[in-house]
Amino acid sequence: MTFNKDFLMGFVSGTVVGAVGYRLYEQNSGQLQNLIQQGAPQLSFTPNKAEPSVEDLVSQKERLEDLIAEKQSSSN
Q1: Beta-carbon contacts of residue 25 (< 8 Å; ≥ 6 apart)
Q2: DSSP string, 7-28
Q3: Helix (H, G, I), strand (E, B) or coil at 62
């Protein structure tokens, strides 16, 4: 099996670039982690503990029924 010269040059250059990139990443991993942690938005999730009222649930039910009826009438 013979290898093409262009293939070998691409393989060697890709290997060298990958090794250099990995080395730079390892040397600067602390700085990269700090950059990622500082740039990440802080998310906080607080669930709504208030139960919806019966009136709210009925109005949502009616709205959904209206939407279903519109979809069924438009598809027929």
Answers
A1: 32
A2: HHHHHHHHHHHHHHHHHHHHHT
A3: helix
Q: Beta-carbon neighbour count of residue 14 at 10 Å?
A: 10
Tell me the domain boundaries of the chain. Answer: 5-38+52-75
Nearest partner of 62 among 72, 50, 54, judged by Cα: 54
Q: Residue 11 and residue 16: Cα distance in Å, rounded?
A: 9
pLDDT tens per residue, the chain (76 residues)?
A: 567 888 999 999 999 999 999 999 999 888 888 877 776 666 666 666 678 889 999 999 999 999 999 999 988 7
Beta carbons within 10 angstroms of residue 66's beta carbon: 10
Q: Whole-prediction pTM value?
A: 0.42
Question: Is residue 25 a contact partner of residue 32, using CB atoms and an 8 Å limit?
Answer: yes
